[in-house]
Design brief:
four-stranded mixed beta sheet, 13 strands
Length: 484
């Protein structure tokens, strides 16, 4: 049994390492979805497979068998033999205790899994369900971002009744439903309930859920064809979290990775090469981890995992931490409005900015997570937008869109002087009711257009800028919220 557990753990870890180092970075989420699911099944089943090979090809195994036969024929072990006494008195009680501990923890995970399923049933049974297209919307009072489970999408009732739910969010949840992501979630949760002792399974759960977001994001972008606007929407929702374990959520984890994946492109040739390589790896692992005789002579190699970090292990001294805070205090403006404190950062001088970057990047991860203000790398430029004539004509409606061209506000009629091909970037952001009120409810969306020349200049400046800049520490904010 211990050999099986060892093989399962190592095999699943090796396949996960291949995924994180190579496959996760490529834009082929459909293949990656089945790779992750199959990797778990493969790792659990392949140690149970046995092969009988011709004896003449395995001389070392024959020698060991003959040696063992000689030992047995030399005579039976007696009760005075210390080895046989140790095997009986020490091993059995320890095994019993370990199985008992395993059973208790597994039962706790199964009860937790059942409780989560029951909570969904309760929400569906006790709240109004509205049919909208292919989706069943469950209207709940909780002010969470929409999340889906099975064929249901759980949304805030007030937001739904006031038409305050963005179409991209519903499209995102519809993707989870159409692609049956709930089945993957149920599968990994059941595997986790029985294989909680395997650290790789926990990482598989995270990888599967993140890949679900890649799939749903890709669906939305193909439908709406406006990645910048969708990314802005993600940034707006980044701090909200529904906290539902089994649900597929609009804003699940690691938005930075999702942004990178939206801008990725993997050629068909490269995708086929990577997929073929993955299949070859599976074939090789069959011979390593299945029950074949020569595998006993082959060393089990467990690769060391590697981590990347922008900080030193030692971190920085307390004096440097104090200096970092003192520089920030020079530019931090504090105030109070309606009984609540507010903060604003003024523009930091170049010498102080450079010093803050040096100190922050030298901090340990723990030190960085304690800072309310962080130094982050410059944002990459938005990818170019291909406008259709239909979209361009729609932008001319002044009751729907307020137009900026090259960062200057212009009347919508100015668009008649241009064609869709004159612009290389279009960013559309929705104005909420409080923002619409400030402009007299003239339009609902703000449209920022960049002509080709202006976009090339903007892109070149963004790519040339390597300076870190000071802003809120969103990673600290996210982790603090998860702890609450």
């Amino acid at each position: 049994m211990s050999i099986y557990l060892f093989k399962f753990a190592v095999c699943s870890a090796l396949l996960l390492i291949l995924y994180h180092l190579v496959l996760e970075k490529e834009k082929m989420p459909v293949f990656n979805r089945f790779y992750l699911l199959f990797s778990l099944l493969f790792s659990g089943l392949i140690p149970l497979v046995s092969y009988e090979l011709p004896v003449e090809t395995l001389p070392s195994v024959v020698e060991k068998t003959q040696t063992l036969s000689t030992v047995i024929q030399s005579g039976p072990l007696t009760p005075n033999d210390p080895v046989s006494i140790s095997a009986v008195t020490d091993t059995l009680p320890l095994t019993t205790y370990l199985w008992g501990l395993y059973g208790v923890i597994t039962l706790a995970f199964l009860l937790r899994f059942t409780k989560n399923l029951y909570s969904f049933w309760q929400l569906i049974r006790t709240h109004l369900v509205v049919k909208k297209g292919e989706m069943n919307l469950v209207l709940i009072p909780q002010n969470n971002t929409p999340y889906s489970f099975g064929k249901y999408v759980f949304v805030n009732r007030w937001a739904f009744e006031n038409d305050d739910i963005e179409a991209e969010i519903l499209q995102h949840e519809q993707a989870h439903i159409r692609q049956h992501h709930t089945l993957d979630v149920l599968f990994i949760e059941l595997v986790l309930a029985f294989c909680w002792w395997n650290p790789a399974v926990w990482l598989y759960r995270r990888a599967i859920r993140l890949n679900h977001e890649f799939l749903a994001d890709d669906w939305v972008i193909k439908t709406h064809r406006n990645p910048p606007a969708y990314q802005y929407l993600l940034l707006h929702k980044i701090c909200q979290h529904n906290g539902v374990t089994l649900a597929s959520s609009f804003n699940y984890l690691i938005t930075k990775k999702r942004f990178k994946m939206m801008n990725k492109f993997t050629s068909m040739k490269r995708a086929y090469l990577l997929q073929t390589t993955a299949l070859c790896v599976f074939s090789g692992l069959v011979f390593i981890f299945s029950d074949i005789s020569f595998a006993q002579n082959a060393p089990n190699v467990v690769p060391q995992s590697t981590t990347e970090a922008d900080f030193t292990k030692e971190g920085v001294s307390q004096a440097m931490l104090d200096e970092y805070q003192q520089i920030i205090e020079k530019y931090l403006v504090k105030g109070e409005k309606n009984g609540k404190d507010w903060y604003r950062l003024d523009r930091v001088s170049e010498p102080d900015r450079a010093r803050l970057e040096v100190i922050f990047r030298a901090m340990s991860e723990e030190q960085q997570l304690k800072q309310n203000w962080a130094m982050i790398p410059p944002l990459k430029p938005f990818p170019p937008t291909v406008l259709t004539e239909k979209e361009f004509d729609a932008y001319k409606n002044p009751k729907i869109y307020g137009v900026w061209i090259d960062d200057k506000k212009v009347p919508n009629s100015v668009l008649n002087k241009y064609t869709a091909s004159d612009f290389s970037l279009a960013l559309v952001s929705k104005l909420y009711k409080n923002a619409q009120a400030t402009i007299g409810f003239k339009y609902k969306f703000q449209l920022n257009l960049m002509t080709t020349g202006y976009y090339e200049k903007y892109r070149a400046e963004r790519l040339a800028n390597k300076k870190y800049w000071l802003t809120n520490n969103m990673e600290k904010f996210r982790r603090d919220n998860q702890k609450k």
